[in-house]
Amino acid sequence: MSDTAHTFTGSIDSAATPARVRDYVDLLKPRVMSLVVFTGLVGVLIAPTHIHPFTAALAVLAIALGSGAAGAINMWYERDLDALMARTRNRPLPAGRVAPDDALGLGVLLSIFSVLLMAVATNLVAAALLTAAILFYVFVYTIWLKRRTPQNIVIGGAAGAFPPVIGWAAATGDVSAVGAALFLLIFLWTPPHFWALALYRSEDYRRAGVPMLPVVAGPRETKRQMLLYTLILTPVALAPTLLGAVGWIYGAVALTLSVAFIGHAAAVWRTADDETAFGPARRMFRFSLLYLAVLFAALPIDRLLERIIVG
Q1: pLDDT confidence of 15, banded at 50, 70, 90?
Q2: DSSP secondary structure letter of residue 137
Q3: Containing structural domain, residue 69
Q4: Which residue in 123, 98, 113 sits closest to 67, CA to CA?
Q5: Is 288 found in the same domain as 190?
Q6: What is the mean pLDDT of the chain?
């Protein structure tokens, strides 16, 4: 860690600006949590077994709290990096609005509570998967990978891929091929999604010393891998239909969106390896959020329409 980072860390640790409720909410990374909650809920909704709505709500709450807990610990550990990056320097810890010990304590307590809630409300399989997701995000991605390898997002993406599998397991008590397909869908979506962001935020990551792929391998290699991942992602996006979990309404949506995602990656690939790539990369990043949200929304909608047509 650089001397600059230590200077930032020392100043933010000793700051006395009072915290607000909003600051503690921000520690939980609510925007990330919203996607986690949504994909976890979809896992519950498309599971082939019935689950009581109240139990489903508790399962989704446990997933949300587990995600927030991991986010708080991540912010506690990365407060020195966050202070160096324009995108993150106003977060509660680098801005001095929340004490580091408070953030860590909140994260640990929520981690324990979320796992216990999942175990009591649903089953031990879902609780074990939630535990694995929290531990993976904290120890494998945050502590081990992020500062050491440009593959941080590739491997670390597994943490964000757990929620639909947890939701499925909360309803069924097991993990099936469909659950694994949903895991792979998010796992393979994560690298092109984050690398698009990293392309136009590369100076931030370079300043903080985070070895994101554009910083280590350069924009050309990053764009090549982004295109490759979108190509591999297409058959995985179609897997729920091919496995018979949903019909071809979802399949048509998945195919259309995947072709569009490939088109965005190709547009980024065709740009020069300088700031002219920033516009297409921004558009690809925004589309990637839409891509995953619409795909997961299409899963329960397909199931609902099938029941209406058949029933």
Answers
A1: very low
A2: I
A3: 11-174
A4: 113
A5: yes
A6: 90
On whether the CB atoms of residues 132 and 169 are closer than 8 A, the answer is no
Overall average pLDDT of the 55-74 stretch: 97
Give yes or no: residues 162 and 73 share one domain. Answer: yes
Are 59 and 204 members of one domain?
no
Tell me how far apart the alpha carbons of residues 161 and 180 are, in angstroms, rounded to a whole number.
Answer: 9
Range list of H helices, 51-151: 53-77, 79-82, 100-121, 124-135
Q: Any idea which residue has 């997961």 for tokens? A: 296
SS3 (DSSP) at 282: helix
Say how far apart CA 190 and CA 210 lie, in whole Å: 17
Q: What percent of the chain has pLDDT over 70?
A: 92
* Residue 5 falls inside a structural domain: no
Residue 205 — very low, low, confident or very high, per pLDDT cuts 50/70/90?
confident
Whether residues 24 and 56 share a domain: the answer is yes
The CA-based angle 298-304-307, given to 5 degrees, is 140
pLDDT at 17: 57
CA distance 193 to 282: 10
CA–CA separation, 286 and 280 (whole Å): 10
Q: What pLDDT is attached to residue 85? A: 86
Task: Say yes or no: 78 and 180 in one domain.
Answer: no
Read off φ and ψ for residue 272, nearest 5 degrees.
Answer: -65, 160
For the segment 37-62, the average pLDDT, to the nearest whole number, is: 95
**Is 2 a domain residue?**
no
Q: Judge whether residue 204 has pLDDT over 90.
A: no
Cα–Cα distance measured from residue 42 to residue 303, given in angstroms and rounded to the nearest whole number: 11
Largest Cα–Cα distance in the chain? 67
Based on the fold, state whether residues 122 and 193 are members of the same structural domain.
no
> Is residue 308 located within the same domain as residue 188?
yes
48 with 75: CB under 8 angstroms? no
In this structure, are 188 and 253 located in the same domain?
yes
Q: What is the pLDDT of residues 277-305, one digit of tens each?
A: 678 999 999 999 999 999 999 999 998 88
